[in-house]
Write a structure and sequence with these properties.
two-stranded antiparallel sheet, 7 strands, 5-stranded mixed beta sheet, single chain, 713 residues
């Protein structure tokens, strides 16, 4: 998820959610140009849908010019309105002023994440600084801000509803945090910083994508495929054909290819090659080297924070989070660090015992960890990931998550073939409440391909709202699963199945939204709160109800045996030392980087010294090394905020216990409270208040430690 300002940002808005305002409503006639389909009001069912089938990359520059001109005109009309400032003529009007621009931006973000061709990348390099400049132009409009401030200051006596008061607080706060109160020189400098950062973020992202697409490990002989799942073999052959290497195999330089290879290949020399390629993305001399970009980003962020009145970028970013300040975030990270590292020592000892029996001279290295972890899993729990994979068909798991949504929230998913899509891989479902009331559309784009960024994410092309009548949401889940051979099902790993459910949790957050104003809708909540619904939904994957119905063997159709389900559940805390430590290392470095008084660092030297200071186990690397840490260097999004996954997981573990205490994960009363107070509320209430309304109290760390099998504090 990319986010700088929930309400304002154009240059940084991207997955987790595109934050596109709805396509309908608003004052004045929308900009229309039949030669630019991307600029047209969305047509079709359910309030209109993006015209993906009619859009080409070359349309974006002209469309943005027209859309920004229209938005300027509408915003200026608000700023110069002779009527006294009021909620409706200022804040509500501002909510609808960028309808056209938000539509264009939503489609543009789809191209950026999924269809990033060289031609589009050139457009992106041109547009990102201009979009950043437009956002600053908005926040630095003094007459507009004076009206916003007047409405905000009078919010209590103006008899605004609680949701309207929340919107007034949000818009006013976002403007101030963007520099609306700075003097002219400060505003000019902040704008220059934001434009330069937008260019650097784009360069960082494009460098990383280039390394993922161009680099890889070529396998020449069939014996080099020993131990690999058939799905990975097929994908490696397809990747080789794409590169003109018929008769060979290529392990692509992406997580979806590298991690299964590291887990299953007995060839230690090849594991090392694949591992080194993967962890060196963005970290080598040449045009794609991201290391020179990092210090400049850090310096600019630090300068901007000081101009805005904050001691560091981290203090600026966390001000309105649940953590509130960097000290509280670090306190949580450090509380979990020592137990996690201690568990890694135990995991390495178990792996080393097996490795030493095979080769007395072998010492576990980072490229060995996943391979020998699988051997330990087999020895300790009689559980082989390869035994699970035949039961984990992508289509069946997708049906399983739909089934969970129906059981918990009464949401039904119906396939639609009449909705335009941007790639043949994409399918669309209409979502209905109780089988009748339309809730939204769900777009599903599961497969890896050239031009698509790695990882998995959720986007919202349009947010739910009801300012001018009911507007339903359009959400998507995007992943990078490896396509299967024609006629074969796509089989995924257990971790990938969890990721599938995770992203669907974000989608449900958007689909369950029930608010009036789009800026408060769906996933537009504090960064360390937004991962609660997604991380919580992962908990339904291992339930017997899902596995018995949807974990079906791809050849026999038989459900996963009860004994195998039981072994999955017994191994729930397996390898938590590795998973927690690789994440924590990235989160701790993210926070420490953004607290530096002088961020003029050598990224490689800083990463090495800081990990040594922390006592990072030598057998593990950070989940995201700095030159490939797109979460924090491709936007402001998760910068000084990567901790938020752990913060949200403290809530997740506690929320899961609410279901268990009530008798199980399908308790309808607890699900109804979750929907009412968390999923539907959006940002209409402070997150801590929303969570307390759901749980009846705040969450502590004890449930998190129990959940990971660590000693309780």
């Amino acid at each position: 998820m990319r986010l700088m300002l929930r309400f304002l940002s154009l240059a940084t808005a991207a997955p987790l959610a595109c934050f596109a305002a709805p396509a309908t409503g608003g004052s004045g006639a929308p900009t229309s140009n039949p030669t630019l389909p991307v600029l047209e009001p969305w047509k079709g069912p359910h309030g209109g849908v993006p015209p993906f089938d009619a859009v080409e990359a070359g349309q974006f520059p002209a469309a943005f010019e027209a859309a920004m001109a229209e938005a300027r005109q509408r915003i200026q009309a608000i700023a110069t309105n002779p009527a006294p400032p009021a909620f409706d003529n200022t804040l509500a009007a501002l909510e609808t002023a960028r309808r056209t621009l938000d539509r264009v931006t939503a489609v543009y973000r789809v191209w950026s994440s999924n269809l990033s061709s060289p031609a589009f990348q050139a457009i992106e390099r041109e547009m990102e600084p201009r979009l950043a400049a437009f956002s600053d132009e908005l926040t630095q409009n003094e007459p507009l801000f004076r009206r916003i401030e007047a409405v905000y200051n009078a919010r209590a006596e103006s008899k605004l509803s609680p949701e309207q008061q929340r919107l007034a607080w949000l818009i006013y706060t976002d403007f101030v945090r963007a520099g609306a109160k700075l003097d002219p020189a400060g505003k000019t400098r902040v704008a220059a910083i934001n434009q330069r950062l937008a260019a650097l973020y784009t360069q960082f992202s494009q460098n990383l994508l280039a390394d993922e697409e161009a680099l890889g490990v070529v396998l020449d002989k069939p014996e080099e495929l020993e131990g690999l799942p058939q799905s990975l073999k097929s994908a490696a052959a397809a990747e080789a054909r794409r590169r003109g290497l018929e008769g060979k195999w290529v392990i692509a330089n992406t997580r979806s290819s590298a991690e299964p290879f590291l887990a299953y290949s007995p060839r230690r020399d090849l594991r090392e090659q694949v591992w080194r390629k993967f962890v060196s993305r963005g970290d080598h001399a040449g045009p794609n080297d991201n290391k020179p970009i990092i210090p400049e980003i850090l310096r600019l962020r630090a300068e901007r924070a000081r101009l805005l009145g904050y001691p560091t970028h981290a203090h600026w970013r966390l001000e309105n989070s649940m953590a509130e300040n960097p000290a509280r975030a670090r306190q949580l990270l450090e509380a979990v660090w020592k137990p996690a590292v201690a568990r890694v020592r135990e995991e390495v000892a178990d792996m080393q015992a097996i490795a030493s029996r095979e080769d007395a001279s072998l010492r576990i290295e980072p490229w060995d960890y996943r391979y020998y972890a699988e051997k330990v899993r087999k020895a300790k729990y009689d559980l082989d990931e390869n035994a699970l994979k035949p039961y984990l068909q992508l289509d069946k798991l997708r049906d399983g998550m739909f089934w969970v949504a129906e059981r918990l929230f009464g949401l039904n998913f119906h396939p639609r073939s009449d909705i335009p899509v941007y790639h043949p891989d994409v399918t669309v479902w209409e979502v209905r409440q109780g089988g009748s009331r339309h809730v939204g559309l769900f777009y599903f784009d599961p497969y890896a391909r050239p031009g698509k960024r790695s990882g998995a994410w959720m986007s919202a092309y349009r947010s739910q709202e009801r300012m001018d009548g009911e507007v339903t949401t359009l959400v998507s889940n995007n992943s990078n699963f490896i396509p299967a051979a024609p006629g074969e099902p796509v089989l995924v790993s257990w971790d990938d199945a969890k990721t599938l459910f995770h992203e669907f949790g974000h989608a449900l957050h958007g689909l369950c939204s029930d608010v009036t104003y789009p800026s408060l809708s769906g996933t537009r909540v504090a960064r360390d709160y937004v991962e609660l619904p997604s991380q919580l939904l992962e908990r339904w994957l291992p339930t017997p109800e899902v596995l018995h119905r949807f974990a079906l063997h791809h050849r026999t159709g038989e459900p996963m045996p009860a004994a195998l389900v039981e072994r999955v559940q017994r191994a729930a805390t397996f390898n938590q030392g590795f998973a927690t430590t690789e994440f924590l290392a990235s989160a701790l470095l993210d926070m420490s980087l953004h607290l530096l008084p002088d961020p003029s660092i050598d990224p490689a030297a800083y990463e090495k010294s800081e990990l040594e200071r922390l006592g990072m186990p030598r057998e593990i690397v950070m989940r995201h090394r700095l030159p490939q840490f797109a979460h924090i260097f491709s936007s402001d999004s998760y910068s000084a905020g990567y901790y938020s996954y752990l913060w949200a997981d403290t809530l997740t573990a506690d929320a899961a216990e609410a279901f268990r205490d009530a008798g199980g994960f399908y308790d309808t009363a607890v699900a109804a409270k979750l929907r009412r107070h968390v999923l539907s509320a959006g940002n209409t209430v402070p997150p801590a208040e929303g969570y307390r309304s759901f749980r009846g109290r705040d969450a502590g760390i004890a449930a998190l430690m129990r959940d990971r099998g660590f000693p309780e504090p």
